[in-house]
Amino acid sequence: MEERQCLFCKSPLNPYVKTKDFMVTKEPFEVYVCSSCGLGVTLPQPKDVGKYYRSEEYLSHQERRDNWFQRIYHWVQHYTFWKRRRLLERFVSGRHILDYGCGRGAFGTYLTQQGWHVVGVELDENARKQAQKNFPTFHPEEKTYLQKAYDVILLWHVLEHLYTPLETLRQLCSCLKPSGVLVIAVPHYDSPHARYFNTFWAGWDVPRHLFHFSKTFMKKQLPEYLKLRCRAYYPLYIDGFYTTILSERYQKGANFWNLPLGALKGAFLALQGCDAQCYVYAS
User: Fold this and answer.
1) How many angstroms separate the Cα of 62 from the Cα of each of 56, 226, 275?
2) pTM of the predicted protein model
3) How many CA atoms lie within 13 A of 51 on its CB side?
């Protein structure tokens, strides 16, 4: 029987939502949420999550632009890269960054073109080989990347994918320069989008998302655990549109109306709150 105890505070976990892997296997999973701190966890957690990423639908590991959804994703991606870089430069003057969970290295490659010194970490072998063409990229277990000091440590929609997110963050924080910042982007299960779509909310993304985070956990419990301050947080509205369109597909099936309906619902839900946020932590 699965251990129903919170990884963070050891309080009881309560059933929250039943959903499934809509993208690859269609297997059922359940999300449990801590009754005390609000940290969520996907159960059961697969021992080998790799097979759940082997899909052309998993766009962060793909270069293809075969359909309208993939083309729009990559077009919007270029705009978000510019916004993300401007965000980083608002908080640091140095240009050394560790991109943890860099995928195929698209953002890291963009940063190198802007004069940044990038080190990447990526578990997936194919994506890692692609990133290595443009900047040093390591397997998480190599640990070579921990021997340097960074102005920025970035986990952009990565924390929820880790088997040991808290332990990993504490280890990474030891590599931050005194003036450095830790930047984390995550979806929020307490968002209007998640409440509206419930089982079909694309932000669950089980079992690739092994953990799930509330706004309160990211603003309060996590910085206390890391002994850092949450200096700022920003809504990621474009992420909300993306997950809303995906959620429409999961709920209604893929069709022409996913994009216009998803965009309208995304705009309506964004008026009530954001689907995901970016957090900036510093000492």
Assistant:
1) 7, 33, 23
2) 0.92
3) 8
